[in-house]
Amino acid sequence: MFPLRDDIPGERVPIVNYTLIGLCVLAYLFQMLAPDGGEDFVRQYGMIPVRVVQNDAGPIVAKLNVPQRLPTGEIRVVPREVALPALTIPPWLTLLTCMFLHGSLMHIVGNMWFLVIFGDNIEDRFGHGPYLIMYLVSGLAASLLQIATNPASPIPTVGASGAIAGVMGAYLLLYPHARVVTLIPLGIIWQTVLLPGPVFLGIWFLFQIGSAAFTPSDIGGVAFWAHVGGFVSGLGLTWFARQAGWLHPLARTREDA
Any idea of the CA torsion for 6, 7, 8, 13, to the nearest 10 degrees? Predict the structure, then answer.
């Protein structure tokens, strides 16, 4: 499923949301302009679990399990040593920098589109500063859960999707009556449907949990556990903020919609 738009108009200019998108695009341009296509950039500023756990910014050697297909068709996991170069920043800081890096053009376009659709409404309710805090904390929670699933992994984790998952968790709690225009591929036919926000977000979240449960944590690919961690963090932070009375109220037109 791919969201095209929601039916909740923004009330204020989402300054923080636009700034986050701009920083992600700028970081991606730096990656693409790097001599090696951004690989060293990702190794420097992506979140590598084994580095964060060891808190070691120097050159280290880590083990990586690599799936290998045998002539019989059987797949065997072969451990290999991976040399990681020294970092120019403390390892803990990569928990923050990794949120602004992306692995491909489709990766950043998809993430930024989700942020455009859901982020403006959450910035409305939180306000600019608190929204930024919620976003970053959700991203940190996403990385920490990803680390917990395989703390010895030398695979860099990059992307804003963990933080954006936190925004989606907040949206689920704050806009239960919202509807999302969704594009669904049905074979060669692409169908547009109007889904209730909780249905869209619920299906998305269940897909993340199912994918995380059946995807080995020691291979590359999508960091599904990071999505789960960010989503749950966003839900929890938003519930706490609402209980504490820190959120801006909905406009009357929304309450009556």
Answer: 70
Q: Are 246 and 174 in contact (CB under 8 A)?
A: no
DSSP character string of 98-121: GGG--SSHHHHHHHHHHHHHHHHH
Query: CA distances (Å), 160 to each of 71, 133, 222, in order?
Result: 39, 14, 12
Domains of the chain by range and CATH?
Answer: 2-60+87-256 (1.20.1540.10)
The pLDDT tens digits for 176-200 are 999 999 999 887 888 999 999 999 9
Q: What is the pLDDT of residues 245-256, one digit of tens each?
A: 999 997 644 444
- Spatial contact of 89 and 97, defined as CB atoms under 8 Å apart: yes
233-254 exposure pattern, b = at least 16 Cβ within 10 A, e = fewer: bbbbbbeebeeeeebeebeeeb
* 39 membership: H or E segment, kind and range: helix 39-45
Asked whether 166 and 130 are in contact (CB, 8 A), the reply is: no
> Containing H/E element for 233?
helix 224-243
Of 148, 136, 41, 51, the closest CA to residue 90 belongs to: 51
| Confidence band of 257 (pLDDT split at 50, 70, 90) | very low
Over range 138-153, report the average pLDDT.
Answer: 95
Task: With CA atoms as reference, report the closest residue to 138 among 160, 118, 163, 161.
Answer: 163
β-strands 75-84, 60-69: how paired? antiparallel
| Average pLDDT of the segment spanning 39-68 | 91
